[in-house]
Amino acid sequence: MILPYLGQSFKNLFSKPVTEAFPVGDAPKAAEGYRGRLHYDPELCINCGMCMRVCAPQAITREIVPLENGDQKITFTYDMTSCTFCRMCSDFCAKKAITLTDDYLIVGSAHEDFLVTGTFIKTAPPKPKFTPEQLEAMKKAAAAKKAAAAAAAGEAEKPEEKPAAEAAAKGEE
Ligand code: SF4
Ligand code: SF4
Fold it and tell me: What does the alpha-carbon distance between residue 24 and residue 104 come to, in Å, rounded to a whole number?
């Protein structure tokens, strides 16, 4: 029973492999619309988080590191070992910061080889010129000034009251 297999094995020793060699160098181009290696451009990213929300296998993570000056260091990581290459992240990214390239040669020997990462600094909004207490005091002062001006205007608009004595004298004439 083993003999037929032995014959085939012997034949295979001298025949060409049926598989194709891994295409290093001039690899054939992928078909149009192929969804391959992810590309992330942190320069375009606005940190909206939409890509994370639409990624079903949760292949996208974000790390936010607060810096001393109030800025934030933001790193997005796309893990291609969890990615299903559905392209939802790319379709939903309003800034087109993520694209799926036609690179299908996704090989590596460590987990890091399959991570696509990018970092950018989110600058903190400018600090307000005044403290809340100062703003409150300014508001109160402005309100008081407005009230005083309104009161002064009301006084000016009142018709002049003639003294009673003057009126009586006129009546005698
Ligand atoms: S990559 Fe796009 S969808 Fe994801 S956080 Fe950045 S801008 Fe938003
Ligand atoms: S292609 Fe799909 S699975 Fe891969 S990171 Fe984007 S949304 Fe997630």
Answer: 12
